[in-house]
UniProtKB/TrEMBL annotation:
PROSITE patterns: GNAT. This is GNAT family N-acetyltransferase. It holds the Pfam family Acetyltransf_8. It comes from Actinocatenispora rupis. Residues 9-184 form the N-acetyltransferase domain. One of its GO terms (molecular function) is acyltransferase activity, transferring groups other than amino-acyl groups. PANTHER family: GNAT-FAMILY ACETYLTRANSFERASE, SPERMIDINE N(1)-ACETYLTRANSFERASE.
Length: 194
């Protein structure tokens, strides 16, 4: 996959030399509050074991690093839900129309609340709806993560179903909102931001 660019923001394929940055982000309690859990910090060894297989050409998950002016600031991954059947069944997501899924986080807390997360998702949606030809993209947001839900809504996601106890996060079964964007809602969100 080529690098996706929007001004000073770029989403580029993850490389092995990004693992140290990922380990720094995924051991930061502020980031782990929302992604992974503070009870599961990841070392460089953990990150390498988890993400190295995802760099293979035949991986079902595409991993990208977000850069702002060439400096890594976040992570985003995408995949077809049918390749993650367990997740799809937990969320009650039909795989009949073959939706894509995505996960995202801004790894630098000082950039939270700046609109960066929305920009990252918008840039990826442009690729998925435009280049890949996806019709629908779905994600799950913890019910109490209002900032993430607002960021996703800005780019056309809508909450479609509250799924009780969908994810165990920090030892607690957390409710999640299944949120979905389709080509039409993405296009309207794009028009609304111009």
């Amino acid at each position: 996959m080529d690098t996706l660019v929007d001004g000073e923001l770029a989403l580029r394929p993850m490389r092995a030399d990004d693992f140290a940055t990922m380990a720094r982000w995924l051991s930061d309690p502020r980031v782990l509050t929302w992604f992974g859990g503070r009870d599961r910090p990841m070392s460089l060894l953990d990150v390498t074991a988890k993400y190295q297989p995802r760099l293979a050409a035949d991986s079902a998950t595409t991993c990208l690093i977000a850069e702002l002016d060439g400096v890594p600031v976040g992570y985003v991954q995408f995949y077809r839900w049918r390749d993650h059947a367990t997740d799809a069944s937990v969320l009650g997501l039909s795989t009949l129309d073959n939706p894509y899924g995505l996960d995202v986080f801004v790894g630098r807390p000082e950039l939270w609340g700046t609109g960066l997360g929305s920009r990252m998702v918008r840039l990826l949606l442009g690729h998925l709806f435009g280049t890949v030809g996806a019709r629908r993209v779905a994600l799950a947001a913890m019910a109490h993560n209002y900032r993430a839900q607002r960021a996703y809504a800005k780019v056309g996601f809508r909450r479609v179903r509250l799924v009780p106890g969908a994810e165990v996060h920090e030892g607690v079964a957390r409710d999640e909102w299944l949120m979905v964007a389709d080509r039409g809602s993405y296009s309207r969100a794009e028009v609304g931001t111009a």
